Structure formats: C-alpha cells, structure tokens
Amino acid sequence: MKYERILIRYGEISTKGRNRKKFISQLRYNILGLLQDMPTVKVQADRDRLHIYLGEEDGEVILPRLQNIFGIQSYSPVVKVEQDIEQIKEAALQLVKKSFVHGITFKVAARRADKSFPYETNDLNYEVGSYVLKNIEDLKVDVKNPDIKVNVEVRKEGVYLSSEVFEGAGGMPVGSSGKAMLMLSGGIDSPVAGFLTMKRGVEIEAVHFHSPPFTSERAKQKVIDLAKKLTRFSGQIKLHIVPFTEIQQLIHKQVPENYTMTSTRRYMLRITDMIREKENGLALVTGESLGQVASQTLESMQAINEVTNTPVLRPLIAMDKLEIIELAKEIDTHDISILPYEDCCTIFTPPAPKTKPKTEKIKYYESFVDFEGLIETAIENIETITLSGSEEKNTLAEFEDLL
Fold first, then answer.
1. Does domain 5-167 have CATH number 2.60.120.260?
2. Poorest-pLDDT segment among 73-82, 132-141, 230-239, 346-355
3. What distance separates the 2 farthest-apart alpha carbons in the chain?
C-alpha cells in the first residue's frame, strides 16, 4: 500500500494566537530541512494541519524521521483512492490488516466534505465497517474506545483514509525561539541540555574547548559525534572547536589550585559569549545540574556568571544524575558520552576544588595575568564545522527556494 501523504497535527503551536503563522512556517522549514534528500516531497501548511505530499518518495522511510521534529504532536500516513466505494472498502481493509492483532477493536469514522458523494456518513461507516469486519476474523467493533480508528474523508478530488497515529516529539519548532550557544563537553549532561533547549524552540550552535595534547583527537571526534546526534532534532548544527591549551595552562600556573576550576569555567563562558555575539545568539546554555559536582553550586555559578550579562540557560538545573542518564539514553547520546576520552575540564580537575568560591578572590587572582592576547588567538583559530542531520551533507540554503 502506497501512502499519498502524511498528515501532521500541531502540538503546542495550536495554543499560539497571532504568532501561530510564524511557528507553523518554522515547522515547515524544519521538515523540509530534514527531508531535503527527497526531492519530490512537498510540504503544505495551514492553520490547523500540515501535509507532507510524498510524490515519488517512500512514506515508510519518512515516518521514523518525523518523530524527532519538535513542534509535532502526532502524525498519520494517508492513503488516497478514487470516489469509489469498492476502492474505499479495500483501502480500509488493508489499513486495519496492517495494525491487526487478535482481539483488538476498531471503528470507522467517515466525514463527507463533498456532499455530492452518494453515501451518507452513517451509510459509509456501515458499508466500510461491515466489509472490514467480514474479512478479518476475531475483529470487534468498539465505537467509543477502539484500538484502531479508520478515518475516511471524502473530498471532491478523492477519498483519504488513515488509521495509524504516531506520537510526535512535542515542544516548539527549533528556531522559533531564537538562537543560543551550547557549551558542549564530551560528558553526559551537555548533549541532554542541548536537546531540552531545542525542544523549547531554540536553535543551538555548539562550542567545545579542545586542549591538545592533553585532550586527544578521539576526544574531539567524540564531541563531533555527539553534535551529530543532536542534528536529528534540528537538521543541522554548527560546532565551534576552540583551542584552549595555552589559556588552560596559564590558569593552572597562576591561579591557586582550588580556584582553577572556577577560573577555567569563567574563561570558557567568556569566550563562548564572544562567539555568541559574533553569531547573533541570544543566550548561553550549559549542562550544569545544581549540586552535582563542586563547580555546580550556587556560589560557583554566581562567580562564573560574573563574566557576562548574557542569559545563561541551565535546562538540567533541577534534574538528578539518574534522570539525566535516562534522557541521554532516550536521545542516543549516552553510549558516546561514556567513551573513555576525557575533555579539558576533567583532565585538569583539582583534587579539592572550591565549592563556595568568592567572586572578588577569583578576580584578584586573575588580575595578575593578561589573558587578552591568548583569548584573541583562541578566537582567531576556532575550527567551525557544520554538521547535517540528513544523509546528504547539504546546507539549509540549498532548499530555501522550496519555501
């Protein structure tokens, strides 16, 4: 059975008022980006529904991709037949057979947009339902709470049938809430923070700090792989890899040991903020969870935040480690995150980092060293990689003419 289209139902977008059009447009753009390797696909959006016209493409291939697109509440593959009762009955039978297991129930829900169709709604329900019931043993009717609901919509250009409903990712379309910079380490937490930020409609660009030879090329590849995993939810992600060796060595040479972690994170945040300004971002995102480690106390966060006035988003702030691990497994980043390649934070972790650092003290320690030249050099030597979520490594600009 060949699907003609896929019907998309909006989630939280439906609650938007005058701005709904903006959110729907962004969702359409994101779907086109995810399906850019399928040239015959067309996407048409209206106020209440969005339709993906499959053209010559295989709907079975597209269906699993849609589960990662934020802004979708649910979606259903749709079959189109002529205004012929025999074709309608046979299409309904095949749809029920596809999902049938012994003992389940079904109902037919017909709707006539074309009132010239010779069958009234109740007659159509009866004709189609009785045909399906006669051809499948151990199938029962339940008009109130069926396991399978066969929707039949009669329109002038044809009749559309659907029965399967797939759950979407919910949330808001990525890009509808601006852009932020994700501080992406090689650990478990920061990819999850990126995922949750994107779910609220924020486009992310990732920033990673690399300190060779203390951190290896494998550690760098690990972060690239993590960012690649996140592109399944956004279409593409820019990853900025910052050379951090000289800055980190100077910190550990000049700053007292128990304050080195605080100073390191301050300079990471400061550099990330500089990249944000250049890339027109609106916020910074970290994977910090309150009280999880010594550098994630309120006092530490206050001392670290002092270097910027930009909003710092911490989506994991109230989550415990087990909750974060479970979510990492769900989004398929966990197994990459636990690979034994350390990032620049872990390799220089002091044995007893300060849990309640004083902002005035860390500023005093840093005042004896001129980091400005090293920061400029690091910014100049950033390596930027654009990672795509589709098999074809195209940029979004290549399908903008389809909008």
1. no
2. 346-355
3. 88
